[in-house]
Amino acid sequence: MHKRPPTIGRVPKLTRADAVAAVRNPLAFIAARWTPTPRTVQRAALAALVMAVLIVVTGGAVRLTGSGLGCPTWPKCTDDSLTATSEMGLHGAIEFGNRMLTYVLCAAVGWAIIAARSEKPHRRGLTRLGWAQFWIVMSNAVLGGIVVLVGLNPYTVAAHFVATSALIAVATVMWQRTREGDSTPRPLVGKAVRQLVWVLLGASVLLILVGTVVTGAGPHAGDSSDVERMPLDWENVTKLHAVLAWIVVTLTFALWFVLKAVDAPKGPLNRTRDLFLVLLAQGVIGYVQYFTDLPEILVGLHMLGSAVTWIAVLRVALALRERPYDEIGIPSPAAEPTVGTRA
Length: 343
Description:
This protein is mostly helical. The protein has 10 helices and 2 strands. It has helices at 16-24, 26-31, 38-64, 89-118, 124-149, 154-177, 191-217, 234-261, 266-291, 296-318; strands spanning 186-187, 321-322. The chain has a two-stranded antiparallel ribbon with strand order 1-2. Helix 7 (191-217) runs antiparallel to helix 8 (234-261). The longest helix has 30 residues, at 89-118.
C-alpha cells in the first residue's frame, strides 16, 4: 500500500479587508490570528526586563569610558552624519552603539506588548504595563538627547537614570503579572509586615536617588572635557549613601526575622533572603570601589548591582500577595462585562 506524499496546506490569501484591518489596528489583527502560550508571554516580559537592565550597563559603559559626548549632538550623531564616523574614534562608536541599543529595547518592549495583547483571554492589565514601558522608553530617549544637548548636565543625567529605574520597576511588575492570575490579590502576611516592606521600598528609592547624586558629584563625569558637576562635597554624599545602604540592609534583615517569627510562606522568605544576598554583594563592591579610587570596572558592576538590587526589592514587595490561577491553570480574565450576560 502506497502512502500519499504529504501536502502543504494552502495559506489563506490576504484580502483587502484584512489589509485595512491590519493598518487600522495591527495589534488586534495579530491577536485575532495568533495565541501565544503563557510561557511565550512570560519570556517576552522577561526579555523586556533584561533589556532594561542591559541599557543601564551600556549607559554606564558610555559614562565610564568618557564617551558621553562621543556623538556631540542629537538626534544625529554629528551635524552632518546620522551615524558615528571613523574620525570620532572609539568614543563615537560607544555612544552611537548605546543609542542603537535603544532600538533593541524598543523591539523587546514591542514584543512584550504584542504577546500580552494576543494572549487569550485578553488581560488588559498586562497590555497597559507593556504600553507604560513603551512610553517610558520614548520619553527617556528624548531625555537622553537633552542630556547630550546640554553637555551632560549632571541633573539631567540623574533624571535619565531615575527614568530607567522606573522602566525596570514597570518591567518587573509585568514579568510578575505574567506568572499569576487576575483574581483579587490575597495578602500572605499581616498588615504590620506589609508596612515594614513599604518602609523598605521607600528607603530603597531614596538610596537610588542619593546614588545619582553621588555620581553627579563624583569624578566620572562621562566625558574627558570639563563637564559640570553637582556643587556638593562628594565624600559627604558618599557617606550618606553608605548610611542609607546600611538602613536598607538592616530593614531587610529585620523583615527576614519577622517573616521567620510569623511562619510566613516560603515565597516572601526566599525573596527576602535573595535581596539580603544581593545587598551584601553590592555592599562589598561599593566599599572596594571607594577604597580603590573608583576603578571603572567596579563602578560599572555597582551600577549593574543597583538595577539588580532594585529588582530584588520589588520582588519582595510583590511576593507579599498572591493572585491564584483558575481551575484549568489559565490566568483568570479581568472582571469586565461579557456580551449577552446580565448585570
